[in-house]
């Protein structure tokens, strides 16, 4: 029970940190590196699956992929770019912090319900995969949108 409370508190602190970082990042121009690199950096976390404690079953992997892609559609829908002069910026979305907090709450509720049935290592592996499957499609969609906006600047 203490592990569950600690992990939920830590997730909320990290979530607030992400919101603050994302809001500050919108004050600076975006480029392809800033869009592409976060999933590559995050991918190193997949090394956790080398340890059997974190490994997932086939069904758990499918569940995480489906949920991650579903959650990413919300982020894709709200991510937009705007130009200021010759620079491209993420457009501020008032819904973005609300969406991130909502996703965090949904994730927390899921965690509370499955924490009695699944080992903490498997839960960690599941939520890493869910987050990765959420970030990759979102970042790919952002890259596509970025290139479309960049093309309009060149013309």
UniProtKB/TrEMBL annotation:
Output the InterPro entries linked to this UniProt entry. CcdC, DUF1453
- A UniProt-annotated Pfam family: DUF1453
State the superkingdom: Bacteria
Segments spanning the bilayer are: 6-23, 35-54, 60-77, 98-117, 123-141
The answer to whether keyword Membrane applies is yes
Q: Which UniProt keywords apply?
A: Membrane, Transmembrane, Transmembrane helix
What name does the UniProt record give this protein?
Membrane protein
Question: Per the UniProt entry, what species is this protein from, by scientific name?
Answer: Staphylococcus caeli
């Amino acid at each position: 029970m203490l592990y569950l409370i600690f992990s939920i508190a830590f997730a909320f602190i990290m979530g607030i940190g992400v919101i603050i970082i994302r809001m500050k990042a919108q004050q600076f121009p975006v480029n392809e590196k800033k869009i592409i690199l976060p999933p590559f950096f995050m991918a190193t976390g997949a090394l956790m699956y080398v340890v059997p404690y974190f490994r997932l079953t086939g069904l758990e992997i499918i569940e995480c992929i489906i949920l991650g892609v579903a959650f990413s559609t919300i982020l894709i829908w709200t991510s937009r770019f705007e130009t200021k002069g010759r620079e491209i910026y993420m457009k501020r979305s008032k819904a973005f912090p609300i969406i991130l907090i909502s996703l965090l709450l949904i994730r927390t509720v899921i965690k509370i319900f499955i924490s009695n049935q699944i080992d903490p290592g498997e839960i960690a592996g599941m939520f890493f995969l869910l987050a990765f499957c959420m970030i990759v499609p979102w970042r790919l969609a952002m890259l596509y949108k970025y290139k479309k906006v960049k093309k309009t600047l060149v013309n």
